[in-house]
């Protein structure tokens, strides 16, 4: 039995949003301003009861991944402002899509400084609200909803580049 345990804390996962409107990615850290950013893989199931069984058999057939977020609008934080711009201007289709990289800082790549295992998702930014009470900062909330399958790879936090496996 192992007498020690290492909890993976929320700050051991870094999130980067591509805020570029060109073909060259410009990943910005989703940190300051964000009070929550949570992954929901949302497995889709296929359930069957076969003629020789009393109970159902369940298989995972797909995923409907989304990342719900809440963020204060901070003018100098480009990730929060990119999301605000999507909602403010009611962007749709490709204009509301970008790349999002989830970096596992608890999984460094051996022999590569500042490089960690990561997954890149094409996402559609769905903005649910832009609101704020008197005397409070404006906040935006919504979800980054995955479009297709993620790409497994690595991310260098110094150069802010994603490399597919």
CATH topology: Elongation Factor Tu (Ef-tu), domain 3
Give helix % range.
under 10%
CATH class term? Mainly Beta
> What is the CATH architecture assignment?
Beta Barrel
Strand content: over 45%
Note the main sheet: 9 strands, antiparallel
Shape: globular
The strand count comes to 11
Return the string of H and E elements: EEEEEEHEEEEE
**Ends apart, CA distance between termini:** 35 Å
Task: Provide the residue-averaged pLDDT.
Answer: 96
Number of helices: 1
How many domains make up the 3D coordinates?
1
Give me the secondary-structure category.
mainly beta
Radius of gyration: 19 Å
Uncertain runs? none
What do these coordinates show?
By secondary structure, this protein is mainly beta. It is built from 1 helix and 11 strands; from the N terminus they run ββββββαβββββ. The strands form 2 sheets. Strands 1, 2, 3, 6, 7, 8, 9, 10 and 11 form a 9-stranded antiparallel sheet that branches. The radius of gyration is 19 Å and the shape is globular. The two termini are about 35 Å apart.
């Amino acid at each position: 039995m192992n007498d020690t345990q290492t909890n993976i804390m929320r700050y051991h996962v870094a999130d980067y949003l591509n805020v570029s409107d060109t073909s060259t990615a410009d990943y910005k850290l989703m940190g300051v301003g964000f009070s929550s950013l949570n992954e929901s893989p949302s497995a889709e199931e296929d359930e069957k009861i076969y003629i020789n069984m009393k109970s159902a058999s369940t298989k995972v057939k797909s995923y409907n991944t989304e990342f719900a977020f809440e963020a204060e609008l901070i003018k100098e934080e480009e990730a929060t402002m990119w999301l605000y711009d999507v909602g403010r201007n009611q962007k749709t289709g490709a204009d509301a899509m970008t790349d999002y990289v989830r970096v596992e800082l608890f999984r460094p790549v051996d022999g590569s400084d500042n490089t960690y295992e990561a997954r890149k998702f094409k996402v559609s930014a769905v903005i649910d609200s832009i609101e704020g009470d008197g005397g409070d900062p404006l906040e935006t909330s919504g979800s980054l909803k995955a479009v297709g399958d993620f790409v497994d790879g690595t991310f260098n936090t110094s150069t802010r580049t994603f490399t597919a496996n």
